[in-house]
Amino acid sequence: MEKADDTGDDGTAEQQVDFGRTAQDYARHRAGFPPALAERLTSYRIGAAGQKILDLGTGTGSLARLLAARGATVTGLDPAPSLLAEAARLDREAGVAVTYTVGTAERTGLPDAAFDVITAGQCWHWFRAGEAAAEARRLLRPGGRIVIAHFDWLPLPGGVVARTEELIRAHNPAWAMGGGTGLYPRWLTDLRVAGFGGVETFSFDVDVPYSRVDWVGRIRASAGVAASLPPAAVERFSEELTALITSDRMNIPHRVWAVVATR
């Protein structure tokens, strides 16, 4: 996502966020969705060879690439050309093909009933949910499915994630996205209101290995740091986070969560 408002739990706009400013760090340091997510989705008949999938808010293509590697025909949509350029580069390195287009989830400009599956990975909170859900329903064929998925770090008490979040808040008091559980019950309501049925959710936890350099880069690429702070402030933050981390190798706890619904 390129430009969006960071929103608090009450849905109010808090801060202007531009992920286009973080494209290289985003591509280099952010861990993508694990293959286990695609494996779980096969039980919902999602990701089959030849299936036409649209990935909203694709960013650097993490979820799009995962499904394309299983043989699906995937289109990735995002408002940030710089992120799509990084996505295409990562696709070439992975040996997969995804078609990318610039656009927004609320107004894609794509034809009615053109897709078997709509996905949205780590991005639904940036959308105007009612408009995005209605657009997804328009784009899906009858019986088609939508997947909203997240892959979130877990700020367990005393852990490096919790200390990292404290540092983000110290540098950026407007940041309101900390303390998460990786669960998003509001998205279920968004889908039901838009007319989707057969709503189901699942989640599982994984530990993701990070080096000190990669963790600093991953946090620098987050909404609360380089996507919203000026360069000098980002540099100061990076120096303090590097000093805070005592180990060069860490296992960072994450939660994968997804909701699946049917048109």
TrEMBL record:
Return the InterPro entries for the record. Answer: Diverse_substrate_MTase, Methyltransf_11, SAM-dependent_MTases_sf
* Methyltransferase type domain location: 54-148
Check the record and name the CDD domains matching this protein: AdoMet_MTases (cd02440)
Q: Which Pfam families match?
A: Methyltransf_11
Question: Any idea which UniProt keywords this protein has?
Answer: Methyltransferase, Transferase
Q: Which SUPFAM superfamilies match?
A: S-adenosyl-L-methionine-dependent methyltransferases (SSF53335)
Q: Does the keyword Cytoplasm apply?
A: no
Task: Give the GO biological process terms.
Answer: methylation
- Give an example GO molecular function: S-adenosylmethionine-dependent methyltransferase activity
- Indicate whether Methyltransferase appears among the record's keywords: yes
| Gene3D superfamilies in UniProt | Vaccinia Virus protein VP39
Its family? Answer: Belongs to the methyltransferase superfamily.
Spell out the protein name for this chain: Methyltransferase
**In which organism is this protein found?**
Actinoplanes awajinensis subsp. mycoplanecinus
